[in-house]
Each structure stands twice: as structure tokens, then as C-alpha cells.
Amino acid sequence: MTSAKDPDPAPGPAAAALRELLGLLRQGAPVERFTGLAQQVRAAGAGPAEQALVEEAAQVALDIRRTLDQHRRRQAELTALFDTAGDLAALRDPDAVLRAIVHRARMLLGTDVAYLTLNDPAAGDTFMRVTDGSVSAAFQQLRLGMGEGLGGLVAQTARPYATADYRTDDRFRHTLAIDHGVREEGLRGILGVPLRVGTRVIGVLYAADRAVRDFAPDAVALLASLADHAAVAIDSARLLEETRAALVELGVATETARARSEALRLAAETHDRLTRLVLRGGDVADVAREVAGLLGGGLAVHDADGAELARVASGSGSADPGPAGVQDLPAGGPPAGALAASRAGGRAVAVDGVWVCAVLAGPELLGSLTLGGRPDLSDSERRLFERAGLVTALLLLLRRSIAHAEDRVRGELLGDLLAAPVPGRIRDTGSQTLRARKLGVDLGRPHALVVLHCDAALRSRLAAEAARHARARDGLAGLFQGRVVLLAPAGSPGALARSLAADLGQALGAPVTAGSAGPAAGPEELPGVYAQALRCLEALHALGRTGHGAGLADLGFLGVLLGDRADVGAYVDRVLGPVLEYDARRGTELVRTLEAYFSEGASLARTKDVLHVHVNTVVQRLDRIGRILGADWNTPEGALEIQLALRILRAGPARPGRAFPPAADGPRQS
Q1: Closest alpha carbon to 408 in 456, 347, 477, 349
Q2: Where does the pLDDT of residue 204 fall: very low under 50, low under 70, confident under 90, or very high at 90 and above?
Q3: I need a surface site. Which of 4, 33, 330, 569 has the fewest CB within 10 A?
Q4: Strand, helix or coil at 192?
């Protein structure tokens, strides 16, 4: 026996291996180190029983390790799902939630790339919405048609699909665009699961590797869970957006209802005010003042020809007699483009801070309203402005009706003035003068008379335009013997005719010919002046001068030759009358001197021989003729007129019913 206790024997290879297995489990060592222990025991000389024990223990340790790995993975997955649920509960930024889901899918499945596509019902395909780990721009912009590629098939069938190597997998319909994007991204193994909202598929969630990879059922289930969360996030965002939109629409509807209520109140008030104004006999200027006060801007009213009817300065509240406030309104009439646009659309339009409203009666343009100083009219204010246009149209139509009635009265008076005297009946010029005075026409002033002609289809319009011009000139206009005639104060009939032909032709858009005569000194001369104006018009047509205007005196001897029933006596009186009158008063021989001068070819020497006077006497007589007839009497045109008048004078009396006295006996004055 021994008194001391023996020390513990050294552990065998198997016991050492078992202890190391426990250490490897605690460290979470790689799988290769577990399988390498059996070889170490065999190399240490352990028997078969010990080797079998170590191998069995290593297998159990591996099972325990796999179980622990699964628990850790499940814990990470549950943590990710709980985090995603928390994100969904907050849902402050749907895009951030989707990016977080895609990133977690990539991390949990350990893939190189994760991405999410959404269906586009309008285009009938699915487009890339979120990517994580992608480096290819072409891949990030991919759109997949339904049934195309792996993702298109998932979106179409609502079933998960996985491929270990998409490039070589012929189960899917490959397209050039999809294959190019996948190849540029370098993807091989791809897993896609549908995003469902109820029975409806709204997109696809993917996990993909750049290496060949088989996806286990656990990976499919995990990605499907994340896809469900993504679908909830998308649908919740949609519902939230719809709720917000509904609230916005409700607020807009409430504000619209309030605005419409206010607009109706304002419209009713405006209607009452304008109606009372019209019933009180207000005119266009009164309407302009009322509307300018309501809208707080400067307002101008023009007729269809651009003539200003009223103007109210901004904030003045009265018809504007001065420059204050007119800076808000354009000079002249409204901008032509704005007026055309308002007329075409039937609404007020704004151009360069100015509002223009065409005043219409059906398609006919009666005038326009121009509002300045208010570039920001609200809808209700714009409708008020347009309502003012309607009231203005009513007043202009009423004004036109009154004008038409007045034009009929004026036309009747004009017909009485131009009618030829009835033999045996005394012409009552006094009553005619009184009737004219009541219409604002003073027949005591010299008046020119113009006969107007245009295409027969435009005659009624020509009569209306002529009446408007006559009123503006304090004259008369109307139809007489089927022709449009205008009588107006004027000293130069030719100038009046030319002005009317141009203005009326522009207004009608067609040629207007105007023949004139006069001026007439009183009502008793008007029938004769009318006959002369009519002959002037006929002469203009014979000369091919349609669309022009002239006085009978402007045509000279051509008027005598071409006019119907030419009054040659009046022609002689017009050309030689002053010289004939001079001879009659002074007993001179100026007319005889003219005859001798032209008959002798304008030779002073031969003229003095024919007249038996000194050459200086001839020169003195010709100078006096020049002072009487004007400096152009001896021009080719003037000389032709004088020679024609001399020939007519030799053929008969220069004035019907009156012969000029013969030269007095005794010495003649020069």
C-alpha cells in the first residue's frame, strides 16, 4: 500500500476531442473544424470505439449548431418583420418604408441585389420602383410586360418564381431589354414573389445574386412575408392619399360653395343695380360709371367702329373728362387681338393687364368694354364684367332703334328737299327749314350733296353707314329714288365725296363710288344740285372710276361729255362765269380777247391785229383774266376747258333763259 494518493491519469484523445467540441459550439466555429476532430482522434491512436464516439459527438454538435443558426436567423427575421410592422404603423414616408423593406430583404436573404416593381394598369406592364445594391442604370429603368421574364410572369400569375441561373433558364419569356438589363447588372439567381392586396397583384418583390444560387423554401417564405408588408405599406399609402385628397376636395368644395354663394349675391345685387339704372333711362356712360365703381378699375366703352362712347377713370366714379386714371386704359380702342378673341369665345379676355369684353347681339359686334387697372379679376368679377357687356348691348340696341327711327324722319325730310318742284305748287321751304332745325340741321349753311353707289346687296348697309356719317356731320342721309344720298355742310363737294368713298368703302369692305355737287345755298337749290351730283356719279362710272369720289367740278369738261343730260350752261358758267360777269359789269371785252387769243394760236401779235388794239392792251387783258380765273388758266388742261366753254358759248347762251349783254358802245376798258 502506498500512503500518497495517485494523481489523475491524463485524459485520452476521445475525452479531449469532446471537450474541444463543446468549446467549438460555444465559439460558433466553422463547420470544417467540427468534421476535422475525428481525423485528429484517429491520428492520436484512439481505438475504433473512441473514434465512433467522437464522430457521433461531432454530428450531434453540428446538429446543435444548425439548430442554433436557425434560431438566430428566425430571430433576425422576426426582428426585421417587427421593425417593418413598426414602420407601417408610423407610415410617415411610404417611400422610406419601401426602401427599408427592400434593404431588409437583401440583408436577410444575403443577396447581392433586392428590388421592387409595381404594376402600371394604364401601360399594362410593371416598372422598377425601388432598388438596393443595383449598379446598372439600364436595369433600374427596366419595364417588364405582363408575362415577360421572371418578374412579368410573377405579376401575371400572382405566384412566386425562382431560378438558380436566369440566363440559362428557358422557363421564362426572354426579351432583349430584360436580358440586357439583367446581364448589365450581372444577375444569375433570382427569386420573385407577388405583392398582393386582397386578390389583386400590385407588384413584385425580388432578391437576386450575381452568382448561381438555389433559393430554399425558407427564403421564399421570408421574402413573401416582406412582400406582404410592402403591399400593406403601398395600399395604406394609397388609402392615406385618397383620404387626404378627399379632405382637400371637401375643403375646396366648401370654399367653392362659399365663393359661389358670394358670387350669386354679388351677381344679384349687380343685376338689380344695373336694371334700376336702365329703367331710370340711364345711358352707356351711366353703366360705365356703375361697373367701374363695382370693379374698381378704369373703363372705356367703344362702338363697333372703335369710336369712344364713354370713359371712366380708375376710382373716379364719373365720366372722365381729364387724364386722371386713364393711364390704366390703352390709347384708342381695345387691342384688336383681344377683341377678336373675346368675340370668338363670347367671354371676356385679358391681354397685357387689360380686360376686353366684346359687346355682342348674337354674332353681330355692337362695341366693346375695356377695363384697366384690374389685371387679377376673380371669376365672379369677370362674370360681372361680362354682364355689363350684356347690359351695354341692350342699351346700344335701344340706341340703334332710336337712331333708325330718327334716320327714317331724316330720310323723309331729305326726300322732300330733293323732290322736283310740282308745277303750279309753291314749295314750302320754310317748313322744311323748321323740320331740319328740329333735327339739328341748319339749311342756311352751304351744303354739299353726295350720291353714293355700291353693290345692290350692300345697299342697306351703305344706307345705315351713310346715316351714321350724316349724324356725325350734322347732315341728312337716306334713300331717294333708289339711291343712297347724303347731305352735309361742306364748302368742297369733291373733298367730301372722296372722304366718304374711302371711309364707307372700308366700312363695307367693298367699293363705294361717290358723286357730289354743290354747295347749295338753300333748300330751293337742292333738286338741281341732286341732278348734278347724279350726273357726276354717272360720269365716274363711265370713266371706270368705281370706288372713287369726286365733285362735278373736279371732272371738268369730262363731266359735261359723260354725264347724262349734261347742263352745258352750268359748265360754261363754272368755267367762264367770272369773266362773263366781269364783262357784263365793266363793259370790257375779256371773253372776246380769249376767243381771239386761242383762235390765233396764243400769238400776241396776231391777237392784237384781230382785235385792232395795241399788243400791250392784249397783255393787260390776259393778265386781268389770270387774276379772275387763277394762275393755271393757260395751262394745257385749263386752256382746253376754256376753249370748250367758248365754243359752247358761241353755240348758244351761257345760262339758260339769260343772255349776256353785248359790249357797250364807246371806248372799251381793258
Answers
A1: 477
A2: very high
A3: 4
A4: strand
